[in-house]
Amino acid sequence: MRRTVAVLAGTIGALTLAGCGAAATAGTDRPDRDGGTGLVTTTTPALVSDGGDGAELCVGPITMSVPAGCSGPRLVGWDWADHDGDFAEVGGVRQGLFVVVGTYDGSSLTVREVTPQDEWDGEYPDHSRDFSTPCPEPAGGWQVQDPALTTEETLQQVGWVARGLEGYAGSWTDVSTNPAFERQDLGEEEHARLLNDPTQLVFNVAVTGAPAVAEERLREVWGGALCVSTAERTEAELRDIEDAVSDMPGYLDSSVLSPENVLDLHVVHDDGTLQDELDAEYGPGVVRVSADLTAVG
């Protein structure tokens, strides 16, 4: 899970949480892996918060409130007087967005350099995901085979059937085939309603076994467009890995992603060592690490 936090009109006015697995709870205060002696930096402007006990860098989930609720490593050497005009104070809580560079010891960050959001010239990463259909489009296009089995009810039902398949690796819907997908003249509610039309989407299922066997079972309950593809590992295998890494120091949250067929692991800090270790243990790319603090340079 990643987050974007916006400061509006000098006040912490809006918090937008993006990605899967985000919880509306404060971040972790568990110590992270050894940060080493090198400099680390927040990858984008991060929320710095101080309720009177000292400034801390917000990591992980943030509550949708004003002021925002969060927690994270203590900031050693932080002085709000150095950042006058770059933060807001609500209810006795000071908060602002900054790129912070410093040395991290696993529980606190000693500040070396600070850049307010307004002076940051970087770019936010693109966290959009590809939910396209891997199967080739049939001759004549994606079409409904049985209208009686292409309803909101059967769409929900086929999802449950898919999860019970042997070798189930994930499922998702591809709405890019829907004529409303790129329309800009619709209101938000109308656009969402049209995109959820079961007759205008492709239901995707990935399995580690034979696609034909899975498709035969799915066709018992689903009459709409269907693609069954193969994956390297089951969702259950990724859940087992998730259980194994969820108690590591610095863990923030994680999600099993489809169609990527990977475990997305969000931690406080990684200089590349954790990613290398997980690649060696589970295979390259099986666990995808993202960190709030990364090595400089």
UniProtKB/TrEMBL annotation:
Residues 1-26 form the signal peptide. Keywords: Signal. It comes from the Bacteria. This is Uncharacterized protein.
